[in-house]
Amino acid sequence: MPGQRYSQIPILKHIPEVDFVNKFLSLEFTDKQVVGHALTRRYEINDFNKKLLEELDWLKSVRSLLLEEVDRRRRKITGHILRELIEQYFNQAIQRLELTKLD
Fold it and tell me: Does residue 41 lie in a domain region?
């Protein structure tokens, strides 16, 4: 399948982290879930993850920027929701790549 080849190319590292975060934050909640789900699906296959290790620093930088936003939204429901999205999707993606790095 032609689209499948991109699942093995570290294309996310070419998207400026700030741009990604700004766009992500502007999405509706359900769209944020779709993006998060796509991220976790991207790193499900260990053999592909070896080729995607270059995205690990990008993911960590995005997570860091999102956590800064959580701090700015402290004591607001949007901050709590954003933290949950980070934990459910971004942390999982990072953990999967980190495990691949250890292999």
Answer: yes
